[in-house]
Amino acid sequence: MADAARRLPPMLGIVGRKHAGKTTLVVRLSAELTRRGHRVMTLKHGTHTFNIDPSTTDTYRHYHEGGAERVAMVSPDKFALIERWAEERSPEDIVAAHLADADVVLCEGFKRHPMPKVEIHRRAAHATALWPSEAAHPGAWRAFVTDDVPTGFAGAVFALQDAEWLARLADWVEREVMR
Questions:
Q1: Which of 18, 45, 149, 157 has an alpha carbon 20 to 30 Å from 1's alpha carbon atom?
Q2: pTM, whole model, 2 decimals?
Q3: How many domains, in total, are found in the chain?
Q4: Residue 1: predicted pLDDT
């Protein structure tokens, strides 16, 4: 895995409490970095199982009724792969297998993983941020996008009140994460 680890693109975790704006942040940052010419890929962590196709589709039947280990769906403009596994894989393993040709991978969730992180925190959604009290790896927190900076945080801060916060965050990602 040492060789695979060297080939991994930069990975940045986007974390926050439920309804803090994680998905919106991933979408906006991905769009800005893509607009700047970067090849951006995303990885979303969920805490429970999911289905990406309804029960009326053939792929659903292949997987659920047929018990296939992997089901791939191909069309002229897309490819999807559904795979069973006995235990959760690390974000590095998934990126190495499927996203290794990215310039950067934005990982929504994975708050317990030691990868570098940006936390989105809005007072209107939650009184407190995850950092520092609920951070499994507090040193992994590198930046905040927020309207309420936690006391003692020494990393980069992008104030939601600043009209240029997204451009400044993208500059920071290019400089500090993608370097």
A1: 45
A2: 0.90
A3: 1
A4: 46
